[in-house]
Automatic annotation (TrEMBL):
<comment type="pathway">
    <text>Amino-acid biosynthesis; L-tyrosine biosynthesis; (4-hydroxyphenyl)pyruvate from prephenate (NAD(+) route): step 1/1.</text>
</comment>
<dbReference type="InterPro" id="IPR008927">
    <property type="entry name" value="6-PGluconate_DH-like_C_sf"/>
</dbReference>
<dbReference type="InterPro" id="IPR045865">
    <property type="entry name" value="ACT-like_dom_sf"/>
</dbReference>
<dbReference type="InterPro" id="IPR046825">
    <property type="entry name" value="PDH_C"/>
</dbReference>
<keyword id="KW-0028">Amino-acid biosynthesis</keyword>
<keyword id="KW-0057">Aromatic amino acid biosynthesis</keyword>
<dbReference type="Pfam" id="PF20463">
    <property type="entry name" value="PDH_C"/>
</dbReference>
<feature type="domain" description="Prephenate/arogenate dehydrogenase">
    <location>
        <begin position="16"/>
        <end position="292"/>
    </location>
</feature>
<keyword id="KW-0827">Tyrosine biosynthesis</keyword>
<dbReference type="InterPro" id="IPR003099">
    <property type="entry name" value="Prephen_DH"/>
</dbReference>
<keyword id="KW-0520">NAD</keyword>
<dbReference type="InterPro" id="IPR050812">
    <property type="entry name" value="Preph/Arog_dehydrog"/>
</dbReference>
<protein>
    <recommendedName>
        <fullName>Prephenate dehydrogenase</fullName>
        <ecNumber>1.3.1.12</ecNumber>
    </recommendedName>
</protein>
<dbReference type="InterPro" id="IPR046826">
    <property type="entry name" value="PDH_N"/>
</dbReference>
<comment type="similarity">
    <text>Belongs to the prephenate/arogenate dehydrogenase family.</text>
</comment>
<dbReference type="InterPro" id="IPR036291">
    <property type="entry name" value="NAD(P)-bd_dom_sf"/>
</dbReference>
<feature type="domain" description="ACT">
    <location>
        <begin position="301"/>
        <end position="372"/>
    </location>
</feature>
Length: 372
């Protein structure tokens, strides 16, 4: 049961009918979350099959010509976002229109160039998603605890702003106000370039020697997880945010060249320092990433061997609860050709010894801890 479903009885900030144009992953997920709160959701999509699928899964109902929406959410691919926003503003005068595209400056400038009245348009972007798209992958809880960028300008009324921020809050997200260009530079670094890096690294796998990938551990899986994303969507996203992405890529290319040069002559003066500084700089960057509840806190990791049989992971969680050890994060890795997995559990540093001693006393095998 999701956090949203358990709180469905509370009053939603979003009222009336919400029209969602685009019944893919984000549009359908918004529909599921609002429907769980009792909000009337009207779905529209150019694909009848996608629309029918979203409705069948419970994301909302099919939109009707006589609908009078109180809010319109545009959740379509980047290359048609501006066109759909313009159409919805014209068809529903006075209604707040927001979009959830991952690039904010390009559609805004396009609409400005067409002299579209943007009084009731507020661009937004939930920093949420999954590797697989479409209505079938939609979930009501993908926004919970995630940032939701809202791009207001000087003409945005407080009432309109409250509508969009209320939507984000209803879905469990945290609204953050940013200018469109500021947003696009930020996601170039934190989302768009990571996608390219993951894809480039995973793109080396088809040429790997036979058997090499059988050695893949959690590190390479973590690094390449998002490489499974849809190429057709990312061509549009990267094209719409090309300049900020190129800035980050150029800086990254310079860093890679510097490290490559150092490793070509690892015994040369300064070479080892270059490599060490690169790793240390990465340590500093990771320290800055917000963790649980947005806090910049470091946790220790305990790796536990878990038999590949039903109920073992539940038993592990249950016994950690008995030990009063809170699990801050969890990663699972299956050992190749072995009947067990490795559960990497993140806990508070003060809980490491209690967890290790208590689990070992209960028969669990500890593969390693952070300080091993």
């Amino acid at each position: 049961m999701t956090e949203l479903s358990t709180s469905a009885a509370r009053a939603a900030r979003t009222h009336g009918t919400v029209r969602i144009v685009g019944a893919g992953l984000l549009g359908s997920s918004i529909g599921h979350a609002l429907s769980a709160l009792g909000v009337d959701v009207a779905l529209d999509d150019t694909s009848p099959a996608q629309l029918r699928l979203a409705v069948d899964y419970g994301a909302g109902r099919v939109a009707r010509p006589d609908d009078r929406p109180s809010l319109i959410v545009v959740a379509v691919p980047p290359d048609v976002t501006a066109d759909v926003i313009e159409r919805e503003l014209a068809a529903h005068p006075g209604v707040v229109v927001t979009d959830v595209a991952s690039v904010k400056l390009e559609p805004f400038q396009t609409l400005q160039g067409r002299d579209v009245d943007l009084t009731h348009y507020i661009g937004s972007h939930p920093l949420a998603g999954r590797e697989r798209g479409g209505a079938i992958s939609a979930r009501a809880d993908i926004f919970v605890g995630r940032p939701w960028v809202v791009c207001r300008d000087g003409d945005t009324s407080a009432a309109d702003l409250a509508v969009v921020e209320g939507l984000a809050l209803d879905l469990g997200a945290t609204p953050i106000e940013m200018a469109p260009d500021e947003h696009d530079r930020a996601v170039a670094l934190t989302s768009h370039v990571p996608q390219l890096v993951a894809s480039l690294l995973a793109g080396r796998f088809p040429d790997a020697p036979d058997g090499a990938l059988r050695l893949a551990g959690q590190g390479v899986r973590d690094t390449t997880r998002i490489a499974a994303s849809a190429p057709e969507l990312w061509v549009q996203i990267l094209g719409a945010n090309a300049a900020p992405v190129v800035d980050v890529l150029d800086a990254l290319a310079a860093d890679l060249t510097r490290v490559s040069d150092a490793l070509r002559a690892p015994d040369a003066p300064g070479a080892r320092r270059t490599v060490a500084d690169t790793i240390r700089r990465g340590n500093e960057g990771v320290e800055l990433l917000p963790g649980k509840h947005g806090q910049n806190r470091r946790f220790e990791q305990i790796v536990v061997m878990v038999d590949d049989t039903p109920g073992q992971l539940g038993r592990l969680f249950g016994e950690l609860g008995e030990l009063e050890v809170n699990v801050e994060d969890l990663r699972l890795e299956h050992s190749p050709r072995a009947q067990f997995g490795l559960a990497e559990i993140s806990v508070e540093p003060t809980a490491v010894r209690r967890a290790v001693d208590g689990l070992e006393a209960r028969g669990w095998k500890i593969a390693s801890t952070t300080n091993d």
